[in-house]
């Protein structure tokens, strides 16, 4: 079984910067966000179920999912969110598990914003939290997305707190320096994970 490290953190914490660097080091990275898009691609059974449940107006003219409409529908009604999550979570999990199974490196990374909240951490042996001071998190996210600070603050407030994440972390990267500093921290953990993966397969 592949040794899997889950990477998580809040919005704009640096998860992608971290997982990109693991990938550069030759490690297979499975992205939960990508998996959640794949399971509702055209032709997938989940898309037909969503259209049957919410009506055809949930699809765009080209037959693909209208994500903005779906977001509005589940935002208005928590029971609709629950319905959607119970449909998609098992499928996303399957998609992730198959990506991890096909990993071609000594260990694999699963990067997920909701690693623990969604139960995906059950697919991992270790949880790496990317932690960042809130001021810096806000500044980097606003710069990246060009969104108003109030909107980013609202998202941050709705997510798990720094302390909640640190409570379930096995490893922590504090992403408060340069990108170069971040890469060095990833490289140090990479060495540890290579050793752990080797030990766990013996
Ligand atoms: P999301 O969950 O919103 O997708 P994320 O956790 O994947 O975010 P990134 O996209 O990796 O976060 O980082 C957010 C932004 O901050 C990006 O523009 C990234 O280039 C930048 N960034 C990340 N780490 C650093 C750093 N150490 N120094 C400078 N910029 C950084």
What does this structure look like?
It is a single chain. By secondary structure, the protein is α/β, with parallel strands linked by helices. It has two domains: 1-27 and 107-202, Rossmann fold (3-Layer(aba) Sandwich), CATH 3.40.50; 34-104, Rossmann fold (3-Layer(aba) Sandwich), CATH 3.40.50. The chain has helices spanning 15-24, 32-38, 45-54, 67-76, 78-101, 134-145, 149-158, 162-167, 179-200; strands spanning 3-8, 28-31, 107-111, 126-131, 171-174. It has a five-stranded parallel β-sheet, with helices on both faces. The N and C termini lie close together (11 Å). 27% of the residues are buried. The model has no long low-confidence stretch (mean pLDDT 95). Adenosine-5'-triphosphate binds next to helix 1, helix 6 and helix 9. One of its GO terms (cellular component) is cytoplasm. Keywords: ATP-binding, Coenzyme A biosynthesis, Cytoplasm, Kinase, Nucleotide-binding, Transferase.
